[in-house]
Amino acid sequence: MKIINAKYMKDMATDETVGIAATIDGTDVTVSLDPANRHYEEIMRQVAAGDLTIADAD
Amino acid sequence: MSKAAELAALIGSQTALSNRNLIINGAMKVAQRGTSSTGLHDSGYYTVDRYSLIFGNEDELRVTMTQNSVTDLAGFANSLKVQTTTAESAIAADESYYIINRYEGQDFQQLKYGTSNALSTTLSFYVKSSVTGTFAVAIYQTDGNDIIGSTYTINSADTWERKTITFAGNTLAAIVDDNTNAIMIDWFLAAGSNFTSVNNTSWGGYETGKLAYGHGTNAVATTTNATWEITGVQWELGEQATPFEHRSFGDELARCQRYYAERKNGTGGSMYYGNTLQAYGTSSIYGVIADYPVPMRATPTVSQSGDFGAYTASSGNNGMATTIGNLSATSHAWRTGGWSGNSNLTAGHAVVLYALSNAKLIADAEL
Fold first, then answer.
1. CA-wise closest residue to B136 among B159, B163, B169
2. Which of B131, B316, B325, B342 is placed for a possible disulfide with B219 were both Cys, Cβ 3.0 to 4.6 Å?
3. Radius of gyration (Cα) for chain A, nearest Å?
4. Per-residue pLDDT reduced to its tens digit, B8-24
C-alpha cells in the first residue's frame, strides 16, 4: 500500500480531528481514525516504522 | 442414495438446510468497483467484491481481472476471471500470486475453533483454466496465526470442474468474536519455492513455507493470455459439499456493502442526496451528506469521484468547487466538515448536495 501526503483533517466547525487525508495507491481519500480500518492500521504501521509522517491539520 | 436418505444425512450431519454458505458473493454477482480492470500489478480489490488480488514481488506480470459473463456453466451467470496480459518470465523463490477472501471473526464462531469440538468444513467451487495442473488453497486464521492447506487439480483445460476440499477444524486457537480480519482463504495461481516447502495438510502455526504447500504449476502467471476463473464458491460446515446455495443479487449486494459501498449517480442528470446540510458562515457548508446503504464493518475510508454541486435556497446553484471539501466519514454516513468555495451563502440556511452524472461517493471498510 503506497501512502503519501498524509495529513490530519479537522472539522471546521468543531475543530475536532475527524480523519487523515492521504493519497493511497494514487487515490485521494480520507481515512477514519478507527483501529479496525485497514488503511488506518497501515498508516499507523508505517508511522511506527518511520516510513511515514502525518502532517498537522491546517 | 435416495432423496430421503440424503435429507436424513444432511440433518444428521448438523449441516444447516439454509444459510449454509459462509462465503459472500460466491457466485460473483456483485462487482461494485466495475466489471474489468486491466494492467494490474499491485495488490488490491478490483472488480468482483470481496476478492482481493495479491501480487508478491513479480517483475513483469500484468493481468486483467474481470467479472466475466458465464455461458457454459448451467446455473451461473458470472465468474471472477484473471487473464495474464504480460507473463512473468519465471517465478522466483520469493514470488507469489493469489486471490484472497477475508472474513470477520464474529461470523465464524459456529466453527468452534479453539475447542476439542472444532468442526470440519468443506470448501467447494467451480474452476476453469487454460492451464492444467495442481493448485494450492490455504486457510489462514489470524487469531492464533494458524494455517491449513490443500490442493486441487485442474484436469482438463478450458473446462469447468467442481472441486471439493474438506478441512479439519482448528483445535489450536479460538476465533476472536469481533469485526476484524479472522479468516482468509487463499487460491494460489503462482508460488515460488519459499512458499511450498512445509507440509500444511493439518492445522499448525504459520510458516511462510506452508502458504502454498503442494502448488504445482505457475503457468497461469508465466504464460501470456493464460486464464483462470472461479465461481460457485461455497464454504460450509461438515465434511460433505452440498449444492451451491444461490442468493439473490440484493442479498449479496447488501452483504458486500458492509465492506465497500458507493452512492453513484448513474442517471444522466443530477442526483440529489437526501440529507440537508447547513451553510456555515458565508462560504462553507457543513453536515451529513448521505447514509451508507447498510451498517459498515468499521468506520470506512471515504473518497469521491466526479463532480458535485450544492443547491441553496438563498444563493441558488453556483460557486461551489466541484470536489467536496473536507469529506470524511462517520460510523454511518459520508459528511463534510466544511466545504468552502462560495461567498454567497447565508449562515444557517439549508443546503442540499447533488452528484453530477457518474459522480460517486465511495466508502471502503474492507478487511
1. B163
2. B131
3. 11
4. 555 555 567 788 999 99
Which residue's C-alpha cell is 477444524? B169
Q: How many Å apart are CA B274 and CA B175, to the nearest integer?
A: 40
Question: Could you tell me the maximum CA-CA distance found in chain A, to the nearest angstrom?
Answer: 33
**What pLDDT digit, counting tens, does each position of B283-294 carry?**
899 999 999 999
Query: How distant is the Cα of B74 from the closest Cα of chain A, in angstroms?
Result: 37
State the cell numbers at A14.
Answer: 468543531
Which residues 82-141 of B are in CB contact (within 8 Å) with A? none
Average pLDDT across chain A, whole number: 97
What digits encode the pLDDT tens for the residues B249-264? 999 999 999 999 999 9
Compute the distance between CA of residue A10 and CA of residue B175 in angstroms, rounded to an integer. Answer: 36
As given in the structure block, the three cell numbers for residue B235 are: 464454504
Distance CA B210, CA B197 (A): 7
List, in sequence order, every beta strand (DSSP E) within B202-283. Answer: 204-205, 227-237, 260-264, 271-272, 277-280
Q: Residues B120, B166: contact at Cβ < 8 Å?
A: yes
SS3 B195: helix
Interface test with B, best of A2, A20, A32 (most B CBs within 10 A): A32
